[in-house]
Design goal:
- The protein has a single domain, classed as Alpha-Beta Barrel (TIM Barrel).
- It has nine helices and twelve strands.
- Helix 1 packs parallel to helix 2, helix 1 runs parallel beside helix 8 and helix 3 packs parallel to helix 4.
- It is about 35% helix and about 20% strand.
- The strands form three sheets. An eight-stranded parallel beta sheet has the order 3-2-1-12-11-10-9-4, sandwiched between helices. Strands 5-8 form a two-stranded antiparallel sheet.
- The protein has helices at about 25-40, 60-70, 90-100, 140-155, 165-175, 200-210, 230-240, 260-275, 280-290, and strands at about 5-10, 45, 75-80, 110-115, 115-120, 120-125, 130, 135, 155-160, 185-190, 220-225, 240-245.
- By secondary structure, it is an alpha/beta fold.
- Strand 9, helix 5 and strand 10 (about 185-190) form a beta-alpha-beta unit.
- It is globular and about 45 Å long.
């Protein structure tokens, strides 16, 4: 049975009101990286953050974070591009370009969201949107530019898909030769009032899988923004997919403020229940042909 790649979405833009263990600083990311690697993670997805938790878009902060991660681990690094908070295509990838200048810090994976979506959250109890003007825009022109630039840098684009149409656009980029095979596709489920993606249900995952191109080599993984991933994670493990989990997406009050490493330990335990071992970073590199 193919080994399971565990990716950890360690911090995103999460604050600490729900879980005090969200890592922000470079030192905290470095310590978290060591812990999740020991627990069985192969990939770390991270955002640079300031000391107070505010997002940072400075290349120097990404270099510091990547250096802290690399100093203690051999994890595959996958820094963010920064959603709607950064203006302009070149601005969104400037830190990737900077990291690629340092051979030991060059990202091996970078997720590109292959479509556009409304990302306002809806409060069911109050019957209103918490905001009403947040649009995450990714034109095909932007996506092609990203893929071409990443090819020049030797960085693998990840298809980050919030719904079926995102996967269809990702398949088109593969057809154009802009995303090499085997592709790595992140299937982004959404809960907690975020309506832009498929729900974290059996039907939600099946809808994603029905849009995976049958004539392409694709390894796929699942995450859940603002919701508990474990029900879908177990389904993915059984179905031959991979798992991308972390405090950046959800604080897991069900587990009483766990650390990221505890989430990895639990995913690895579930995998081993059905006889599926977890991949080391080097084994994940082989699976993805990095």
């Amino acid at each position: 049975m193919k080994k399971l790649i565990i990716e950890v979405r360690v911090n995103e833009y999460a604050m600490r009101d729900g879980n005090v263990h969200v890592p922000w600083t470079a030192d905290e990311l470095g310590r978290d990286a060591v812990a999740i690697r020991q627990a069985g993670a192969a990939v770390i997805h991270f955002h640079a953050r300031q000391d107070d938790g505010a997002p940072s878009f400075e290349s120097a902060d990404y270099v510091a974070a990547a250096r802290a991660i690399r100093n203690g681990t051999d994890l595959i690094m996958s820094p963010t591009l920064g959603q709607i908070n950064v203006g302009g295509d070149q601005e969104r990838i400037k830190h990737i370009v900077e990291l690629a200048q340092h051979p030991s810090l060059k990202p091996e994976l970078v997720a590109i969201d292959t479509g556009s979506a409304n990302i306002d959250r809806y409060d069911v109890a109050a019957k209103k949107f918490m905001s009403a003007d947040k649009v995450y825009e990714n034109s095909h022109e932007t996506l092609m530019l990203f893929c071409e630039e990443f090819a020049r840098l030797g960085v693998r684009p990840v298809i980050s898909a919030w719904n079926g149409p995102f996967l269809r656009s990702g398949a088109a980029l593969m057809d154009m030769g802009l995303i090499p095979e085997p592709a790595y596709a992140l299937l982004v489920h959404c809960e907690g009032g975020l309506l832009g993606g498929h729900p974290a249900t059996t039907a939600g995952l099946e809808a994603f899988l029905s849009h995976l191109p049958a004539d392409r080599q694709i390894e796929w993984t699942v995450c859940c923004k603002h919701g508990n991933l474990f029900p879908v994670a177990m389904q993915a493990i059984i179905s031959g997919g991979h798992v991308s989990i972390g405090l950046g997406d959800y604080d897991y009050p069900e587990l009483q403020q766990p650390k990221n490493a505890a989430l990895v330990t639990e995913v690895a335990r579930l995998a081993r229940l059905i006889g599926r071992e977890v991949a080391t970073p080097d084994e994940a590199r082989a699976i993805l042909n990095l």
